Amino acid sequence: MSETSRTVPAVGMVGGGQLARMTHQAGIALGVDFRVLAAGPDDSAARVCADARFGDDRGLDDLLAFAEDCDVLTFDHEHVPQPVLRELERTGTVLRPGPDALRHAQDKLVMRARLRELGAPCPRWREVSEIGHVTDFAAGTGWPVVLKAARGGYDGKGVWVVGDAEEAAAVLDRAARERVPLLVEERVAFRRELAVQVARSPYGQVAAYPVVETVQRDGICHEVVAPAPGLAEDRAVAAQELAIELATSLDVVGMLAVELFETDTGVVVNELAMRPHNSGHWTIDGARTSQFEQHLRAVLDLPLGSPRTVAPYAVMANLLGGRDPDVYSRYIHVMAKDPELKVHLYGKQVRPGRKIGHVTVVGDDPADLLERARTAAAYLKGDPQ
Amino acid sequence: MSETSRTVPAVGMVGGGQLARMTHQAGIALGVDFRVLAAGPDDSAARVCADARFGDDRGLDDLLAFAEDCDVLTFDHEHVPQPVLRELERTGTVLRPGPDALRHAQDKLVMRARLRELGAPCPRWREVSEIGHVTDFAAGTGWPVVLKAARGGYDGKGVWVVGDAEEAAAVLDRAARERVPLLVEERVAFRRELAVQVARSPYGQVAAYPVVETVQRDGICHEVVAPAPGLAEDRAVAAQELAIELATSLDVVGMLAVELFETDTGVVVNELAMRPHNSGHWTIDGARTSQFEQHLRAVLDLPLGSPRTVAPYAVMANLLGGRDPDVYSRYIHVMAKDPELKVHLYGKQVRPGRKIGHVTVVGDDPADLLERARTAAAYLKGDPQ
């Protein structure tokens, strides 16, 4: 190891997905030693990071070995089990965020109970272990209701909108077989979905990004408009304050994303994520400090960077895989058409519907930006429109 | 190799310095396979790039082996000898820029002769092989004059301002011993130094960045202000047109930096560089398309990105090594003081005077930005002010 490497901290990110890839990209500028624990060399982050280690990113032995060379561990995903996190912590590993915070991103029952304690706005909900719990609940809210797996869901997986007792029973049966605890939530009559991100450092500093509008289809984030067009200033500030309060109360270190439903009367919390988040990819090209740099600054207990935007609006569209694996050959068209557009490809094998990249464009008119981002993402996907 | 890697091109960058490091950072977003040929694992780029190969980055054998796995080779420096470049080209390697263009960045005599042919504004100059050439020349221009090594100089090395025949003779003696051809140039009475960067693709597309002011001390670039404050619009456009004409006439592919002296009557060309350049580091944080992304787009023959700026002004200050190798521990202070400031550290061992990073800040008032960038760079250097 050179002299330099002994004077900078080593950050280990658990998981080798695109979040780790883009965190590595940010870490290059900070000059820290950044390493990832990935499943293999074809993982998105491992394809670009000089110091990729390979192993089971949820297993204690591989995590202990990985932690030995790191000053701080952070996470590309929420899937490291609590007992593993506790054991890592017990053996002296610095985990940011820590297990007590992460529980709220790992288990929706824990999250909902804590949010209720804190008085944060939530949909009506309850834990369910038998069909009577669902039908009782639906008697109060009306059908349909939303069943959610308390643990392990993402991108729409683990969420079922059920229209009657029969559909609910089928979900309960399957969950019982797979030993997945469930909760039921009212189906919120929302105008739109919003998200707000804050960073928090161990020192206690917080920085809030603008509230964004997220457009989901089939549970997958398709587009993000930053800031959310037409959002009343008082509602935006209230959402940022809510996210800051949650980050502080839950002792989050790093980035916290709070996914929200906007209703006629305010916002309710849908989900929490304690890592860089798809709703913040626009910050790479649209903010002075990207969420990835901010996450690193937070977990290193450095002063946070300015979340100020570089343009009135930024729009991000996810690039989902189509049938043709050759996305690169379509770069020429989108780059020639729109020289302002930023393309981000994750180096992942293309599979239909898989998030393989995103595009971002910034400017003054959100409708124009949305049209341009959508056009580019659809063209890069390559399927007939 | 995964399916993805077979559908994206592989770019090899020769040399493992900070230019390759920052090009890798840009390549992550483009999703191309990027590899570097570095001297060893502690090289700036090798410390962050997943695919670093090690060898002699000026030697034919190692370059041939490196080229085998690359669709296109490009360069972090100008030091690959012409015979090596020619042999690489003969064996089918795609070199961007090619040897015919690179000659003009490698040999100041070739560059000056060609610029004279093209009618580009230059200082008065001539080749010198004996002291009489210098004294004859100085009889026309007056002393002092500037002696330059035709090949191998950088960052002020290979440039001597000599006040009389005796000083000139000493330089000539040393150059003769080292078999370095020399030229003499008039010492230009310049108001300030400027630089202009353009990108050019094999297709022939060009994109010009704003003309910047560069502040040099001891031959090393210390600060860059983009765009150059108070530069008359017609003079700025003329400088951009000059750079475009040179890029086209010399068949440059990739980034071209033209370093200029601004005099009372116009500009004259000082130096050329055919790669990303220190005068363009501000583009990472200050332009829609960084010079590093632009260089990759050009050498891959992709449509070029918009060089538009994200703020009225950007200021970059180089971070030079001081006596204390521990720069990182001083991050806290500069980041707390100026949350808008962007820090870029190159992962290089700290040595006094060595370029080990840079800082950038963007905004409305160049004097304010310059003050902030200087303060941060001086503090990070760590020496008493």
From TrEMBL, chains A, B:
Assigned keywords, A-Z: ATP-binding, Ligase, Nucleotide-binding, Purine biosynthesis
Keyword Ligase: yes
SUPFAM superfamilies according to UniProt: Glutathione synthetase ATP-binding domain-like, PreATP-grasp domain, Rudiment single hybrid motif
Keyword match Lyase: no
Gene3D superfamilies: 3.40.50.20, ATP-grasp fold, A domain, ATP-grasp fold, B domain
Top class in the EC scheme: ligase
Catalytic activity: 5-amino-1-(5-phospho-beta-D-ribosyl)imidazole + hydrogencarbonate + ATP = 5-carboxyamino-1-(5-phospho-D-ribosyl)imidazole + ADP + phosphate + 2 H(+)
Pathway in which this enzyme or protein is active: Purine metabolism; IMP biosynthesis via de novo pathway; 5-amino-1-(5-phospho-D-ribosyl)imidazole-4-carboxylate from 5-amino-1-(5-phospho-D-ribosyl)imidazole (N5-CAIR route): step 1/2
Cellular component terms (Gene Ontology): cytosol
UniProt GO BP: 'de novo' IMP biosynthetic process
Assembly and binders: Homodimer.
NCBIfam families: PRK06019.1-5, PRK06019.1-6, purK
Family classification: Belongs to the PurK/PurT family.
Name this protein carries in UniProt: N5-carboxyaminoimidazole ribonucleotide synthase
